[in-house]
Amino acid sequence: SENLNIQQIRADFPILNEVINGKPLVYFDNAATTQKPRQVLDALLGYYEHSNANIHRGIHHLAEKATSEFEATRRRIQEFLNARLSEEIIFTYGTTDSINLVAQTYGRAFLKAGDEVIISTMEHHSNIVPWQMVCEETGAVLRVIPINDEGELLMDEYENMLSERTKFVSVVHVSNALGTINPVAEIIQKAHAVGAKVLIDGAQATAHIDLDVQALDCDFYTFSLHKLYGPTGMGTLYGKKELLDAMPPYRGGGEMIKEVTFEKTTYNELPYKFEAGTPNIADVVAAKAAFDYVDTLGKPHIAAYEHELLTYATDALQDIDGLRIVGQAKQKVSVVSFVMEGIHHQDIGVLLDQQGIAVRTGHHCTQPLMQRFGIAGTTRASFAVYNTTEEIDRLVQGLHKVKKMLG
Ligand code: PMP
Fold first, then answer.
1. How many Å lie between the centroid of ligand 1 and the Cα of residue 225?
2. Is the ipTM of this complex over 0.90?
């Protein structure tokens, strides 16, 4: 890469020095979770060593320090997403938690029998099941945008589905199983034209694509920090203020209230209305270092380098006899999902692991998508900014070995 020093970046990630089954680790499971740079690990330890206290209600020094570090991450996310207001940033435990929050509050309050909710064939289970649950409760109907054989949404079919019955559209920005980048700006604009609200599941997008929620005009945007070089157990729900204000609260408890009596409770204002209980303070504080890390490298530089890896891997893997890549969208992030003739994906995963190569195998929490392709699962290699073409060469050698043993 012209703009990034990959060896220097690799040195920021201590885990990349691990030796697995006698071989240097090749970590190609980044769509499941990325590794964490020293900067994030230091922030996490630093918080516990120098700032740890419960937030918001304390008047002592540490409580104020912890609160201010916690709230600094909220403003950092506001900047990262280009949200209009910091109270539009709700801390959650991750994408799954964020989508459940919207389905259980917005969905239960505003969906009724006969209304339609649109998702797509390539959704992660976390953007299917919460909507099925709320549809079952309200009598709303779930509709699904189909895809073509390359793994791209059929936008004409989507347009035909939209009507005054459409109340909510919830689609993935980037498919975790295929790598497809969806035309979310167009999806949002068309949904708004019929008065529907839109949630974008950005779990796989935030590490690769520059984001501007005001330009996109999405109503909700969700992601998980652990896929963005940040800690586990922490995510974000962005929502437009007027919608968040109109939504009933989600979990009840401390912090989300204004005043409690046994007769009646009034609720706190945004964002605290949706943040009951002691949040994941340490991981929220450490997350700031992950945004700083990504922005210092520059997402356009990260995306350009990862695209080189994607092209290199796609070419090399396609040369392997009997290997077929699943998902060949024109717009893709650095994810390569594939099947091999006569060899089960689980066997591929086990044999690659013996060579120190970490990939993901199976349905990737997208069972309906696998059904669409008529397969039980794939082997998925997903690349991050610290991966190299030499590592892809090792994957290719590894797959040749798999073929020799099982093919
Ligand atoms: N959506 C997509 C597209 C994902 O890839 C994932 C994580 N695999 C999720 C949602 C769920 O994220 P989390 O497990 O962090 O809640």
1. 10
2. yes
